Amino acid sequence: MLTYALRKFGQELLSTFGTTIGEISLIPATGGIFTVNLTYKPSEVAGAKEDASAEVQSVLLWDRKAEGGFPETKVLKQRVRDHLEPARNLGHSDVHGKHGAKPAVEQPKSTAEMKSTSESTSDIASVKRNPDGSICEDCR
């Protein structure tokens, strides 16, 4: 089971990132150990392209014991993307989907809906009510 998961994650990452990712090493272990480490050389450091002085960095992307299980493929892709190509859109695998998080836009109301809303609002505004909900006798 574990070796299948390793191959699955490796194939997904290679198909998503292609040559950007370079190499994936699958190292099966026993005792419930499952970690995903990313070793990479940042392509852009402080706005400069391919800096020869850029140091190779290593980061732990996933630890089964710390995270409480195995990652979903999309989560693993997002974490790899955040280090290799932060501006890249992963489409349906992205955190907020293809177009990013957008606030819900209220659809415009039809004229009939607007009239009924304004009529009910004006009726409510013209009639004053007592705290118990009855209509005020002086306001009739």
UniProtKB/TrEMBL annotation:
Locate the coiled-coil region(s) and give their ranges: none
* UniProt biased composition (Basic and acidic residues): 83-97
Stretches with biased composition (Polar residues): 108-124
**UniProt KW Oxidoreductase keyword:** no
Q: Which UniProt keywords apply?
A: Redox-active center
Q: Which PANTHER family match?
A: SELENOPROTEIN DOMAIN PROTEIN (AFU_ORTHOLOGUE AFUA_1G05220)
Quote the protein name from its UniProt record: Selenoprotein W-like protein
